[in-house]
């Protein structure tokens, strides 16, 4: 205990007080802006006397762990990637779908030149940031800059940016531009490449995309980089004890670049005490809990943008017609500096075109929507005026009940593209899809959809409306904070005492016993097939009574619903091939020990399961095949479709191709998962359990397949995980895990420590209450003056 006493003495002395309790209550005295108390795995518990100090501590601590990743974000939103990295490269997919540094810069420079972020920030709340948010942001910027001033570029230990001239102090404008890029991820950020549109020149234009192609593009994630999540909120009736609640927050986000989470606790004594994680550079807890309420988010189904097809004036492709009257498109020429091979800089220019609805575009996620002599398409992004989300998470960080969560979501209307699940100490479980949704009713879509729009709206909720009629503009609700979006009371929300959940399907079956119906198509579908992951979550919730321990065990069991549905039949099919030879694209292939492995497999993606890798590679080939013989039945959505279609030649060949693929990678058909699924950190191979969501595995891990070695990296999957329980104790019973660890810096002790915990199926017992923090054997105190 001597190390704790020493740390507390340092802490108290820094704050000029005699006891720790008083020190926390008076954080900020004697020039201390913030106090960072680090516990196991480098998790900072940040204490300050005011919001500016809280932001300062966050900015300093976040930069300490991830300065290079943060610097990449700021060089991107300031449109200077081409200046420092050259025009090629792959852009920065964390912030837009631009395919090159040059297109990334031109896209962000166009936004910066438009002044949209500055105008939004200049507004008073609720449209602009509330005063406390501005204080947090101001402090964050100063804290980040203080870290750089202390270390200097040459003192940065991360080789990714040590000494780099693109690492620089930031401004508040950089911060707000970053948040704006997050808000428009599902709109402008998705269609970035399509914005490089030019009026028709007489050359042939590409054939327009079909509704099926647009649907496939939308289903591919709306440009959100493989984002997904599980959120399971269990009320008192669903707990093992019959009281309190349990919440699982399990976002599936990229393991690399700027969409990483970072964990902290933020405390202003008597005002705020919240713990959890946020996306890098966001000094608010975005998924987390207070002493009495917990919440998480999942990527939602509503399409947050819409298209308008505008008729063009004859002979003038930059003039469109609304209600019979011509309107000129506006244009903006954008210039960025591009580094040449000899190190010199030269300007690159691009003209962007826009209408009253928004920018003109020529493709959506790679699917053409051509600009012809007769018509053009314009995009309206419902989040293009959204700076309100900062207020949303500020309010959530002070929630004490599910009612407070609903109030925060409804009063700010700033959640850009996610659902919310929440629990509280009183035993309530909440589902709410209170987010920014374009105000396109089914009636408006029926009246105003183009022929293509009639198909895309029915299929995926993407509105494509007649831009030649002002009566086809998006509608308004009295309770909405701005025109063109639905008011909170028009969107799905439900509170129960058993459970509410979402795993990226629509709101329809947030609870299997109480379907949510009657909402506009743009909000989501109903009576449609649920994903295997949704079915796994619902079947588990319906059959279980949860404690925090059982929730953690359930997630890390890595059970596959699709294996339950198909593995036994696949094993029989394997055993039926004549001569033990399965068909494949390259000819017959011996099945070897595959049949026995599948027959004996426990249907999990735990590290020692045999048959799991073979089934993974097989199932990955089934997306466009008739997989099941029993079709989906809306009256039995949890159990249909089912029964593997073993008679289909494509299914049989998929099995043989999976065998070939494993053997090419040097893996036996009965290899353990650990033999063929791992990441390497600082030369150490770390096996990774879990699997893709299409397998009906809740603990999603989407690996990167190397044909010569198997799964060698994780693209995206379980990231920050929290299980929070409220029961009889005053302190929440909470455990967390940041799968890829706190720091992207390979020189940091917190670069892969939690990744190793994850590999072993272990969790971090969260230290939320004061006594728990003080008991940490790793307690380390940093005072920022």
* Shape field: globular
Q: Into which percentage range does the β-strand content fall?
A: 15-25%
- What is the CATH architecture descriptor of the domain at 559-697? Orthogonal Bundle
Poorly predicted runs are: 11-30
Q: Superfamily at the CATH H level of the domain at 559-697? A: Aminohydrolase, alpha-helical knob region
Count of alpha and pi helical runs = 22
User: What Rg do the Cα atoms give?
Assistant: 27 Å
Instruction: Tell how many strands the DSSP assignment holds.
Output: 34
Reported for the largest beta sheet, the result is: 10 strands, mixed
Spatial ordering of strands, largest sheet:
21-19-18-8-7-6-5-2-1-34
Oligomer: single chain
Report the CATH C-level class of the domain at 559-697. Mainly Alpha
Spatial separation of the terminal alpha carbons: 27 Å
Summing up helix and strand content along with how strands pair, one would put the structural category as: alpha+beta
The average pLDDT value, as a whole number, equals 94
CATH-defined topology of the domain at 559-697: Penicillin amidase (Acylase) alpha subunit, N-terminal domain
Organism: Amycolatopsis vancoresmycina DSM 44592
GO molecular function: hydrolase activity, acting on carbon-nitrogen (but not peptide) bonds, in linear amides
Keywords: Hydrolase, Signal, Zymogen
Signal peptide: 1-27
């Amino acid at each position: 205990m001597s190390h704790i006493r020493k740390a507390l003495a340092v802490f108290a002395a820094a704050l000029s007080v005699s006891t720790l309790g008083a020190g926390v209550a008076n954080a900020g005295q004697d020039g201390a802006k913030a106090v960072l108390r680090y516990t196991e795995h480098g998790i900072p518990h940040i204490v300050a006397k005011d919001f500016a100090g809280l932001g300062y501590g966050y900015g300093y601590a976040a930069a300490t762990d991830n300065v290079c990743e943060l610097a990449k974000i700021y060089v991107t939103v300031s449109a200077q990637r081409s200046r420092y990295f050259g025009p090629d490269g792959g852009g920065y997919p964390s912030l837009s779908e631009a395919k090159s540094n040059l297109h990334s810069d031109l896209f962000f420079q166009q936004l910066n030149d438009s002044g949209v972020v500055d105008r939004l920030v200049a507004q008073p709340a609720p449209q602009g940031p509330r005063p406390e948010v501005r204080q947090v942001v101001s402090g964050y910027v100063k804290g980040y800059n203080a870290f750089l001033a202390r270390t200097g570029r040459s003192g940065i230990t991360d080789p990714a940016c040590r000494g780099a001239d693109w690492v620089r102090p930031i401004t508040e404008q950089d911060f707000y531009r970053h948040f704006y890029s997050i808000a428009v991820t599902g709109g402008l950020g998705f269609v970035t490449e399509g914005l490089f549109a030019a009026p028709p020149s007489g050359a042939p234009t590409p054939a327009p995309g079909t509704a099926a192609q647009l649907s496939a593009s939308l289903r591919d994630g709306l440009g959100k980089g493989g984002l997904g999540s599980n959120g399971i909120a269990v009320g008192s009736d669903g707990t093992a004890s019959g009281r309190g609640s349990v919440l699982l927050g399990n976002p599936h986000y990229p393991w690399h670049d700027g969409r990483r989470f970072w964990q902290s606790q933020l405390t202003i004594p008597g005002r705020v005490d919240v713990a959890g994680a946020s996306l890098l550079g966001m000094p608010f807890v975005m998924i987390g809990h207070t002493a009495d309420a917990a919440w998480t988010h999942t990527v939602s189904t509503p399409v947050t943008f819409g298209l308008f097809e505008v008729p063009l004036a004859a002979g003038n492709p930059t003039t469109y017609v609304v209600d019979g009257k011509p309107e000129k498109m506006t244009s903006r020429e954008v210039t960025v500096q591009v580094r040449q091979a000899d190190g010199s800089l030269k300007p690159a220019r691009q003209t962007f075109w826009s209408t009253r609805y928004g920018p003109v575009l020529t493709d959506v996620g790679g699917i053409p929507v051509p600009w012809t002599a007769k018509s053009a398409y314009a995009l309206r992004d419902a989040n293009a005026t959204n700076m309100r989300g900062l207020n949303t998470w500020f309010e959530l960080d002070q929630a004490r009940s599910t009612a407070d969560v609903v109030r925060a979501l409804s009063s700010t209307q700033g959640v850009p593209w996610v659902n919310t699940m929440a629990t509280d100490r009183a035993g309530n479980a909440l589902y709410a899809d209170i987010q920014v949704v374009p105000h396109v009713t089914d009636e408006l879509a029926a009246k105003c959809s183009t022929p293509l729009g009639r198909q895309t709206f029915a299929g995926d909720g993407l509105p494509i409306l007649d831009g030649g009629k002002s009566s086809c503009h998006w509608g308004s609700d009295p309770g909405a904070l701005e025109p063109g979006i639905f008011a909170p009371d028009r969107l799905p929300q439900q509170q129960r005492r058993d459970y509410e959940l979402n795993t990226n399907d629509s709101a329809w079956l947030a609870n299997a016993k109480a379907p949510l119906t009657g909402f506009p198509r743009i909000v989501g579908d109903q009576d449609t097939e649920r994903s295997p992951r949704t079915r796994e979550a619902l079947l588990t919730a319906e059959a279980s009574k949860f404690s925090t321990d059982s929730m953690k065990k359930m997630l890390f069991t890595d059970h596959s619903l699709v294996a339950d549905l198909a593995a036994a039949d696949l094993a029989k099919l394997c055993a039926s091939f004549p001569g033990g030879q399965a068909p494949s694209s390259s000819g017959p292939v011996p099945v070897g020990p595959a049949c026995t492995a599948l027959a004996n497999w426990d249907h999990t993606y735990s590290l020692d399961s045999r048959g799991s890798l073979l089934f993974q590679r097989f199932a990955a080939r089934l997306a466009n095949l008739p997989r099941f013989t029993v079709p989906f039945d809306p009256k039995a959505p949890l159990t249909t479709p089912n029964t593997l279609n073993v008679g289909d030649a494509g299914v049989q060949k998929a099995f043989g191709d999976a065998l070939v693929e494993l053997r090419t990678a040097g893996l036996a058909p009965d290899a353990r998962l650990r033999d063929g699924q791992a990441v390497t950190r600082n030369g150490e191979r770390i096996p990774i359990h879990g699997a893709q969501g299409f397998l009906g595995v809740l603990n999603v891990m989407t690996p990167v397949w190397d044909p010569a070695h198997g799964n060698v990296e994780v693209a995206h999957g379980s990231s920050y995980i929290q299980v929070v329980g409220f029961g009889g104790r005053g302190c929440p019973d909470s455990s967390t895990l940041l799968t890829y660890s706190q720091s992207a810096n390979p020189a940091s002790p917190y670069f892969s420590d939690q990744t190793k915990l994850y590999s072993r199926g272990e969790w971090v017992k969260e230290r939320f209450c004061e006594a728990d923090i003080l008991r940490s054997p790793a307690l380390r105190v940093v005072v920022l003056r």
